[in-house]
Amino acid sequence: xVAGTFAAGTMPATTPLTVNQFCPAPTPGNVGVALSGGGSRxxxxxxxxxxxxxxxxxxxxxxxxxxxxxxxxxxGSWLGVPFVYLPPGSVTDAAYLGPWVENPDALTPExxxxxxxxxxxxxxASPLFGPVALALQALLLHQVLRVPPDMLWQTLIGxxxxxxxxxxxxxxxxxxxxxxxxxxxxxxxxxxxPGLNPALAAEPIDLYADxxxxxxxxxxx
Length: 221
Prior knowledge:
There is one protein chain. Strand 2 and strand 3 form a beta hairpin. Helix 2 crosses helix 3. The longest helix is centred in the first third of the chain and has 15 residues, at 39-53. The chain starts with 18 loop residues before the first helix and ends in a 14-residue tail after the last strand. The protein is built from 9 helices and 6 strands, in the order H-E-H-E-E-E-H-H-H-H-H-H-E-H-E. The chain is mainly α and 221 residues long. The model is unreliable at 210-221 (pLDDT under 50). It is 35% helix and 8% strand. Strands 1-4 form a two-stranded parallel ribbon. Strands 2-3 form a two-stranded antiparallel sheet. It has a two-stranded parallel sheet with strand order 5-6.
């Protein structure tokens, strides 16, 4: 993926969008996708939405690789951030988003409970991600490891969601130390360059647009 800018117009929708509206000529794929917040429900909804985009086709290819921007907030970020930054050699997009089910009538509670290894739903299905368990973790992190109150939620998300995908580099108190950015040039220009914060150059910085770390065969965008 090459760094740069793109222009996209807005299209008020009074009826459901069609695939042809999603990728209109003459600039097919010139769109962005927004994943809303809402905790674990938002993660599950976003998983289905990206899975559907990876199933639908237009312009001779799947829709998901034609998306140029992904915007996320809150629970949508629990799905979107790991998806964009999945390290090379880790879980595939198909396993992370889950398999496509052609006939929803065939779904059963027992089948839904079986998630592929590395699936985005695995962390939030864990007993450790329930409200009581998260509260106990926060209490231990604060009282035992002295994690500051304003870093507790970031630490909980790092431990419970990002760590499963190799995207969590904690300090001795388990607070996150890593940063997420676009590519090496962006890091230098906006984070570690002259007059900025060169000390961060020694910290882990996860990139997603660098050919050296993004596997072309399974690139999400």
